User: What shape does this take?
Amino acid sequence: MEFSGKLVSFDGNFSGDRTVTFSVNENVMHQIEGIKDHKLKITAVRYRNKRSTDANAYCWVLLQKMAEALDSDKWTLYLKMLKQYGQFTHIIVKEHAVDAVKRQWRECEVLGPVKVGGMTGIQIQCYFGSSTYNSKEMSFFIDGIVRECHELGIDTMTPDEIKHLKAVWGK
Assistant: This one.
């Protein structure tokens, strides 16, 4: 069961029972019966809108237009755009693990050897695929692609159309 809502209250102390109350945005009554009186694993995290399929579709439309203009393919351009406008993390691995790590990420850039705590490893900048992006991250990604399209003279949605598309993401 997963739902969105808000924390309403927390009641209890460190030595006894504690009660956490949430208000929920969806109707979850039909799901409650299946878990009633069972031990549960409960996770509460801040809610963030995910990007919509419209955002993803628009991303790929723009990449296709760029590919045609540049005599390239949209996958190559997608990877290039990830490096320019995408989300990434840095990881450090043992030298023998570099190739295995590169196979697990959409795009990677080997930055070179580093020493941490007296041990040597290889630092890699690893880019997340856009399917993991929330609305804010996808918005930044698409804005970058739109700028690239404008530099190539490729028509895109108008600023108002893009603003509207962003406004409905995650709804």
The two ends are 20 Å apart (CA to CA).
